[in-house]
Design a protein that fits this description.
It is a single chain. With 82 residues, this protein is mostly helical. Helix content is 27%, strand content 0%. It has helices at residues 18-28, 39-45, 75-78. The termini are far apart. 16% of the residues are buried. The model has no long low-confidence stretch (mean pLDDT 84).
Length: 82
Amino acid sequence: MEHNSCYAPQCTRREHCTLWHNALEEVEHSNSLLTITNPQLIDKAGGYEHCPNYYEHKLRRYARGLVWSYDDLTLAQWLGLA
């Protein structure tokens, strides 16, 4: 597996959990290994509403970084002449 997943159909928050969506992708790709969160950890946390591995499934944006540095910037480029 390339990422964490949790296949727990009884979880009340599964539709909004990234780990559930990862598990569904693994099922779709016929992976031979599925994982779940240890039920003892969930019980200690106070149930599925307080799952310690819950990670909200939502669109995230990541910065890709600069392809150049200011050291490479010439005065003409800085002034907008180049």
